[in-house]
Design the sequence.
């Protein structure tokens, strides 16, 4: 049975937001701070981790990027002195990314831009909604899907979550 | 001012869903039908278009992919006889992608898989929410952001929409 009209309208709005919100946040941050959302997120995850350090694999997982993708991001952050790589204390073959003092300062400096951007593009529009209930629902979306799986070889992905009955255009 | 706890929890849930839902839908479709969500979406947009045909640029825009990314997808669909390329009638330099009869049949065959997947990962979890109100809110997210902009050179993007005050980990 096809989705009903309310379900389909929601799905289309969600599918659109999935594409536009990351792009809007990324554009604001790049324009105002010269930093991408991927770079910002990496700094943020490090700032929240114990000792402000994470194994490269865990940082990639948290960011839902491939290890090679995260490695390129850490290269760029390292070149600017915001992150440094260190050998894992527990595993001589592994590397950790460590947030530097300069990285934390930079993150604190950039944060207000990102916060304003998130408010403008998302949070300003959710007033009047039952936010805890919505959050609980959204936490159940694709709940068995790990953020970090299947990222060895990412290919182009678009996600218009369209489910109307095929062939009804024309 | 930082987000309040409800706002931040919502943002994290939304940021997570942005990453996991497309992946879950893609995985289901690949496993059960050997088709990616990008391929499915392209067929769907064509099925909804007048004459079941779209200029390559418009198809890329609808899918929020770069023209080169969409071109690769159409290559794969064309090789399977699901789409064919034709010169634009209105512009001899342009190309259109046209859904074939086999493409429409394939789309109709695949659709129940995608529908079940969308229900399982998303729609089954929104009962009890004020869906029209939620849809209206979500339609205002990043409202000025075009689906198809800034796609000439897509780079790795992750979008954990984290906005907690920096440096509070540890």
Sequence:
């Amino acid at each position: 049975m096809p989705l009903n009209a309310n379900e389909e309208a929601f799905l289309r709005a969600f599918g659109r937001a999935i594409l536009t919100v990351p792009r809007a946040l990324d554009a604001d941050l790049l324009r105002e701070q010269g930093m991408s959302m991927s770079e910002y997120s990496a700094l943020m995850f490090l700032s929240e981790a114990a000792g402000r350090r994470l194994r490269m694999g865990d940082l990639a997982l948290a960011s839902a990027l491939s290890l090679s993708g995260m490695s390129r991001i850490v290269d760029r952050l390292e070149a600017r002195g915001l992150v440094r790589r260190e050998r894992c204390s527990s595993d001589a073959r592994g590397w950790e990314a460590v947030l530097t003092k300069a990285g934390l300062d930079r993150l604190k400096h950039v944060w207000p831009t990102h916060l304003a951007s998130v408010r403008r593009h998302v949070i300003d529009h959710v007033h009047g909604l039952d936010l805890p209930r919505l959050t609980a629902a959204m936490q159940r979306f694709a709940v068995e899907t790990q953020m970090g799986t299947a990222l060895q070889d990412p290919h182009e992905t678009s996600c218009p979550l369209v489910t109307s009955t095929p062939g009804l255009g024309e």
